[in-house]
Design brief:
By secondary structure, this protein is of the alpha+beta class. A hairpin with a 2-residue loop joins strand 1 (48-57) and strand 2 (60-70). The radius of gyration is 18 Å and the shape is globular. It has one helix spanning 2-34; strands spanning 48-57, 60-70, 80-88, 91-92, 102-105, 108-109, 112-116, 124-130, 138-145, 162-164, 167-169, 178-179. A five-stranded antiparallel β-sheet has the order 1-2-9-5-6. Strands 3, 4, 7, 8 and 12 form a five-stranded antiparallel β-sheet that branches. Strands 10-11 form a two-stranded antiparallel ribbon.
């Protein structure tokens, strides 16, 4: 029972940390939208809501269900809806092949096509292209697995998503497929 309670507390802390981080981003975005003397307002970006639901078995987190709500992204057919690095600082990320990522909007299922970008000095990236124009808000769902690590795992920065001490460790850039922005 103590192990289950400990896992629940660690997962609750993760949810709180994510909520606090997203709240800080929201507050900063609101400040940036208002502008300030001498500060240029950024272009309007769609609303983004991220929900992470960790799943644990036998006291160890084995995946996170990701739900991403994108407010009216207005993506045209053939354009990039999501983008993510396949390798970050020599650390592999989940590939999310085939139908691992699903999307829907006001018109129903939104089919996605995968396109891998040519490697560049800054990394290797994958895009998910909308097969039709988006209509209204878009909801994206996928499951982020923990990376299996062992004594033979190549050392590097801990960007990858991995189970650790009944909780998890990782950086969002290594497991979150997010909307493409002008800077990505």
């Amino acid at each position: 029972m103590r192990q289950i309670c400990g896992t629940i507390i660690r997962l609750a802390k993760l949810n709180i940390a994510v909520a606090v981080g997203l709240s800080a981003c929201t507050a900063f975005a609101a400040f940036a939208q208002r502008g300030n003397a001498g500060i240029e307002k950024p272009a309007s970006q769609p609303r983004l809501q991220l929900v992470l639901m960790p799943h644990a078995t036998d006291g160890s987190v084995n995946y996170i269900d990701v739900t991403l709500a994108i407010g009216q992204p207005r993506v045209k057919a053939g354009a990039t809806l999501l983008r993510m690095a396949l390798i970050v600082a020599s650390i592999p990320t989940p590939r999310y092949d085939a139908d691992a990522i699903t999307a829907s909007d006001y018109s129903g299922s939104l089919p996605l096509t995968i396109k891998d970008e040519p490697p560049t000095p800054s990394g290797i990236y994958r895009q998910w292209l909308a097969e039709r124009d988006t209509v209204g808000d878009v909801t994206v769902k996928y499951r982020a697995p923990m990376r299996a690590v062992s004594a033979s795992t190549r050392p590097g920065p801990l960007f990858d998503l991995r189970a650790e001490s009944g909780g998890l460790n990782g950086a969002g850039l290594a497991f979150l497929a997010l909307p493409k922005t002008e800077n990505s």
